[in-house]
Every structure is written in C-alpha cells, then in structure tokens.
Amino acid sequence: MAYDLLIKNGRVIDGSGRPAYHGDVAVAGGKIVEVGRLSGSARQTIEADGRAIAPGFVDNHCHYDAQVVWDPLCTYSCHHGSTTVIIGNCSLALAPVKAEAREKLAGMLSYVEAIPMDVLQAGVPWNWESFPQYMNAIGQRLGVNVGTLVGHSAVRLYAMGEECSDRAATDTELEVMRRLVRESIDAGALGLSITRNMNHFDIAGKRIPAACAPESELFALADVLREAGTGVIQCGGGTNPELKDRLLSRISEACGRPIMYNTLLEQARQPGRWREHLKHVEETAKQGIRAIPLCNPGSILNRFTMKNCQVFRSMPTWLPILQGPDAEKMRAYRNPEIRAKLRAEVDAPLGPDSTFSQRWDLMVVEEPKLAKNRGLAGKHIAEIAKAQGKHPVDAFLDLAVEEELETGFCLGEINMDTEAVAQILGSPYAVVGLTDGGAHVQFHSNVSNPTRLLGYWVREKKIMSLERAVQRLTFDSASAFGIYDRGLVQPGMVADLVVFDPDTVAPRKEDVVHDFPANGWRMRELADGIHYTVVNGEVLLEKGEHTGAHPGRVLRNAGYHASRNGGA
Q1: Which end of the chain has fewer CB atoms at under 10 Å, N or C?
Q2: Which of the four pLDDT bands, split at 50, 70 and 90, describes residue 271?
Q3: How far apart are CA 501 and CA 521, in angstroms?
C-alpha cells in the first residue's frame, strides 16, 4: 500500500498507557492506517531513529480565542507537541456578539486573561456575530486543531446587553441564552463554559457577566446539553463552590454531562488545601459523578511590573488603581491615606477568593531599573522591608514608585511544593492540562506543560512511567472533552502525532518577542526534543520550524458528527 506519510523505526507510545513497542506508523488520507513493521512506499518518510511516536498532545484549557485569527498555529502550544487546543474557557469567548458590544466583550478577555487591549483592537476583524459564524471564520486557516466552548459571559452579554452584570435575567432573556447555547452545540461546539471566579473583572472594573448569574441560570443552560445529549461543561473558579456545596457535582448530576473545572493545585494562599480537595475528588468519582478538576504540572511564576499587575485585584482599594492610567497609579501609591488602606487590605485575613498569599518572601525583585537599586536584584520583599524597617507594602510600593512602576517583580505561589504536585499529577481523578495558552502573555507562559511533564516529572523525578504521562497528555484529555477520534496511535484514528526524544524533551527558557498586532510583545517559550508535530496527517512543524502547511480544523462534538452521519 502507498502511504502519504510513513514514520519509521520509532518507539510507539500509543496513548493507552500500555507498554511502548518498536514499530512504524503509516498515514493515508489524514488517518493512521497501519502500525507495525511496514515496508510500503510513502510520499513522505520520517526516520524516527528510536524516538517516541505518540498521539499529538491536547492542550485542553487555552485562551487563543483572539490570537487564532492572526496566528493560526496558536503558538507556542504546537512547539511543545500539542496538535489540538481548546478555547472559549472560563465563560470567555468572542462570540456571539452584537456590533455595539464588541469592545465590551473584548475588554473581558483583555483584563481577565491579561491580553493587551490595543492588541485585540488591532488584531480582531469581528467578521462574525453568531458562534457558528465565529467557528467558520477561524476554520478558514488553521495550523492546529481547535475545539471551541461557547462562553456564558458572551451569551449573557448578547441576551441582556449593558445590564448583563447587574441583575438576574428575565424568562425571555434566559430563553435567548438557551437558544444561543443550543445553536452553538448544534454547530459542533465541544460544550459550554461558565465561571464562579468572583475575581474576574472586565477592563472597566465590572465583574464579568457569567460570575453574576444565579445558580438557577447555570442549571438552565447546562440542561441544554442534556437535551442535546452531547457536550462538556467547563467551569472557571470551580474549586470553591464545589468544596462548599458540591455545585459542580450537582450540575453534572442534573444534566448528565461531564464538567471540567479549575483547579486542583498546591498554593501558598491555602496551604494543605490540596489534600482536602484531592480527597473530595476521589469520593465524588467513586459516586459515579463526573465533576473533574484539571491539574497543572507547572510551577507558575508570575512576572509583572506595577504597570500591569493583577496580584492584588481581589482587594477593593487596589482594583481601581491597578486598572487606572499609570499617572493615577503613581498619585495613589504616593498618597499616605490610600497607602494605609492598601496595607490594611493586604494584611486582612485570607479568604477563598484571595489573590495574594501575604507571602512577601515569595515576591522577588527580578529587574530593578535604576542603577542604585541593582543590589536588590534577587532579593525578596520581606528581607528588603526588614532591612529598611518598613511594612512590606511600603517597601514594595516605594521601590515601584521610585522606578516609575518599571521594576520587574516575580511571584511564585502556585505548585512550588514538588511532593504535593507529584501526588496531584498522579491522581486518576484529575485531568492534566490548564496551560492557559494565549493568556497572561506578558507575565508568563505555561504552554510547556507537556514538555515539563515529560522532562522534569518523568525523566528527572520519575513520578510515573513515560507511557502513563503520554496517556495523561493525549487520550485522557481527548476523551474527557468528547474528542473520540484522536488521542491514540491506532489504525482508524486521525493522524495527530508527535515525534519526540524522551532523553532531551524539555521547555526552553522564556524570552520576549514583538510579534503581536500593534507591535505588541509577549513571552515566548519554545522546546527542545520535539522533532515533528503532525496534524491531520500533515507535518506542521519539523524541529520547531513551520513547514508552511495549515492542516488544522475546527473540531466538533460527537452529536454533530452523529447527526451528519445519520446516526451511523
């Protein structure tokens, strides 16, 4: 048989978790057709030379909703072996949208996910209104596959207009929302995204619409998926309400659909809470309820200046200052009365929605701007405050103001305890993912989750087998999000593949590139050890370089495919 693509002499890790084996993988018509020792001719042959051949990784929690329109590869997820990204998370999407609401909708994505507004204004063409139109627009030219979730905040804004964050919906408005969700699911959206994160605000400082919706509205929208018999629900900020009164478990039980939520993690803000959460998740799974948290293999380092800081956004005095112009920030931070309020809010008891742990020993001065302050580089605020005899807030803000808000800080509060993270990653009751690809573009990049799991956690820490890690990155996510034709190296499956070197795979150090619209800059994170990325049977990347191909497509839910195939 003649093949389109033949990958020879590899170590096949098929995504099932079963032991790897030596073999070749043949592709024709975009699908895997044979696996084994193969001798047929091929239009293109890749010599794997003993490297791993695995299913393409699924980047299951991204915010490329805008970026995909100017960057069809959704960089840099694909450089870490991801062949599929899922967007529209945390209730945030760019459709449906009325013309007069475009700026407001973009402002939600901008502030919540820290994507500069001028980049969105320059890069988004808004050549759609409905969610199906958006899916068709992005599907015209894709490098990777893109799965979409219809966002509750977008739907609520469309149905209720400017009052979407101010009140409960009328019965008529709720029916409009239900219709919009059903229209999206019927068009193939993988599901619905909601949020219970009360620290998510738009660029004007208003809480985003989905966070303002009553629980009854969540159940009413989830019921649309029950009626459709397909789709997944994703929830941002889901941990607190799930641990409080099982909200997500109750939604999943009511609609019969799986609900994926953020996040099972170790964090300095709530030490030891991960153990309580993990126990809860295990008990929920044993009851047959599909309320499943995502977990992240990365330690999150938040790099920021006081021009773009979001660390203190849960605090009422801080929030409007953080969102104001730089000149107003400087005046506020110098004002003794305001400074006293800022100190008091930082020192207040921590709550479930707190965004800062009060661990000033974890906040490091990374890049002082003035020569006289260079000696502070690498020191944390706690030790600087002690040396200066100041409250940490004063030491922190005095430095920021002196350097006109340009001091570079780094805060590491999440997943810093390696033993805790190892236990979380090994839990069969959670799904690995949550890179936030496309978000927080000037703070940090976590698109390296796959290469970090394979390099640091598997090769160095040996917390699980390579076969299990690949399963975590492929089949587990694909099946959890209803993508049933990918995630395994088996005949008949779509040929999304990655060839990587288990001995060298690792993320590279981040750097800065100016490649966004309006000459915007972002953090770039590339990888070592990823040799080929294959999407729908075509090579997308060869040793990190784009081949020029655009083989990606918009992925659609199982119900959509069943209706198109007459139920066959």
Answers
A1: C
A2: confident
A3: 31
